[in-house]
Design a protein that fits this description.
Layout: H1 3-25, H2 29-48, H3 51-55, E1 61-68, E2 71-76, H4 79-105, H5 111-130, H6 134-152, H7 158-190, H8 208-220, H9 232-235, H10 241-250, H11 252-268, H12 270-274, H13 281-298, H14 303-324, H15 327-358, H16 374-388, H17 394-408, H18 412-438, H19 453-471, H20 474-480
Antiparallel strand pairs: 1-2
Helix pairs in contact: 1-2, 1-5, 2-4, 4-5, 4-10, 4-15, 4-19, 5-6, 6-7, 6-11, 7-8, 10-15, 11-14, 11-15, 13-14, 13-18, 14-15, 14-18, 15-16, 15-17, 15-19, 16-18, 16-19, 17-18, 17-19
Length: 489
């Protein structure tokens, strides 16, 4: 099979999976879930099959068609997109295993619709990952928003629907009101929106206009949750835990920071932005979001809301690293997408397991729970340590590269922000770990043990990936070094 045919199949397969889930769901739950797992595995296999060509320097592409002169729907495989696609497709397998245990144990309604929308969300995510230009990115970005709305509103009660509308309203409002005008402006300036090594805007825009256009892109990509366009993310916590994992670790937020990083590297160009003073505000905005979201997380008592604000802070690590505009930091931005995905999906899996087994949602209810749910809390501990950046976890690797890039740029603000946020991360995660393992258990609630084994298997697998990435990150570093001209010298 040619690489072009592989790309086409990757873009079509999730649609076939969604259709297969609908048909299988009419016969049996087991068949429906088998289609989900087999389809997710097939998609991951197809995505990963493109890795050898990419590592060899090839950039396979596929053009679907031209909508207007100079405006085409096209896809191209490059290092950053491959990282996102490989991450999302691989974690879809584990998330599907977890979802089966969660949805059955909690007797959730509309399970067929749930799995269908998951497949559609991965379809849109693959489109985002392999977009060859801004127009294609925008189309797939909007499809991702629309396909995840039914997942956020899954419970269907009035409070959930209100929160889901906040989710939809902010993401559509920012993309149509800011992201789309930025794309139109770019096409007007450069005559193209193609993602190009070195960028396309140098010589077409200068001065304060660069900072303004950058602002339209950054705040228009609301999925990156940079303050003040972050409220959709805590609002989405009304969704079932597997959806929260999708939103925070697999597809939605990663699509946001991925898009911003890709726009900085391939539309503006690192050298051009670094030489333009009006773009310097982005580092400050990201640093503000990191510290503020960490302080808000410190005050949360609901476990999922704490993790939501932790996500907002961790996403801005990627934005801040990309905005440092140095090779090591750009690689650090890409690597942190993967490190955060492994750690945060583990934390949400653990939160869902605790809810399923013990019906506990608040931090103060976790006293002594490690003795009843040792597998779950061991995984939670690993995920939390990765968020802090403690070796031997994935979070240490990405923070190392971001800090190295900050020193490369002599940017003390970034160094201070990482140190301060690491302290804040420790301040809200370490007490939970201590309470779960060493405090006396609260007497309230029914007797319980671990959650269903499918859920425990999934959270154990992601915890192991969080540890494994500390040692086996070489191929990712090598691939993402291709992001910047000259690699890491």
């Amino acid at each position: 099979m040619t690489p072009e045919n592989t790309i086409a199949l990757i873009l079509c397969l999730p649609l076939f999976i969604a259709l297969g889930i609908v048909v299988a769901g009419r016969f049996s739950d087991n068949l429906r879930e088998a289609v989900t797992l087999l389809g997710a595995s097939a998609l991951a296999g197809l995505v990963w099959s493109l890795l050898p060509e990419l590592m060899a320097g090839e950039r396979p592409a596929l053009e679907i068609g031209e909508v207007l002169p100079g405006l085409s729907v096209a896809f191209r495989v490059e290092p950053l997109g491959m990282l996102f696609a490989a991450l999302a497709s691989g974690l879809w397998i584990i998330n599907s295993i977890y979802s089966i245990g969660y949805m059955r144990a909690n007797r959730e309604k509309n399970q067929t619709r749930f799995y269908v929308c998951f497949a559609l969300a991965l379809w849109a995510a693959m489109g985002v990952a392999f977009s060859a230009n801004l127009f294609t990115l925008f189309l797939c970005y909007e499809l991702l928003t629309l396909s995840t709305y039914p997942l956020v509103s899954h419970k269907g009660d009035p409070a959930t629907v209100r929160s889901a509308r906040t989710y939809l309203g902010i993401l559509l409002g920012t993309s149509i009101g800011l992201f789309l005008p930025a794309i139109i402006w770019t096409y007007h300036l450069a005559g193209t929106g193609d993602f190009t090594v070195g960028g396309i805007l140098e010589g077409h825009i200068s001065g304060a206009d660069v900072g303004l256009l950058l602002g339209l892109f950054v705040f228009g990509v609301g999925k990156a949750a940079l303050m003040p366009v972050h409220r959709w993310l805590p609002a989405a916590m009304v969704a079932p835990t597997p959806v929260s994992a999708l939103l925070h670790a697999v597809a939605v937020v990663k699509a946001g920071v991925f898009a911003i990083t890709k726009i900085i590297v391939y539309i503006f160009g690192i050298d051009f932005l670094f030489a333009t003073p009006s773009s310097g505000w982005l580092v400050y905005a990201a640093a503000f979001t990191i510290i503020t979201a960490s302080l808000i997380a410190l005050r949360q008592q609901n476990l999922k809301r704490l993790l939501a604000y932790s996500t907002i802070a961790q996403l801005s690590y990627v934005v801040m690293a990309a905005a440092v505009l140095k090779p090591l930091a750009e690689v650090g931005a890409a690597v942190h997408m993967m490190a955060h995905a492994f750690g945060k999906i583990t934390l949400f899996f653990a939160a869902g397991a605790i809810y399923t087994a013990a019906k506990k949602t608040e931090v103060h209810q976790l006293r002594g729970i490690g003795r009843r749910m040792p597998w779950t809390m061991a995984a939670f501990t690993i995920g939390a340590l990765s968020m802090i950046g403690v070796p031997p976890t994935a979070g240490f690797v990405s923070k190392w590269y971001i800090l190295a890039g900050a020193f490369q740029a002599d940017n003390l603000l970034v160094v201070f922000t990482i140190i301060a946020s690491t302290v804040l991360n420790a301040a809200y995660f370490l007490p939970i770990i201590f309470m779960a393992w060493f405090a006396a258990e609260t007497p309230d609630g029914p007797d319980h043990g671990e959650a269903p084994w499918l859920m425990v298997f999934a959270l154990t697998a992601t915890a192991m990936l969080t540890l494994a990435f500390f040692l086996f990150n070489g191929p990712v570093i090598e691939l993402e070094s291709q992001l910047v001209r000259g690699g890491i010298q």
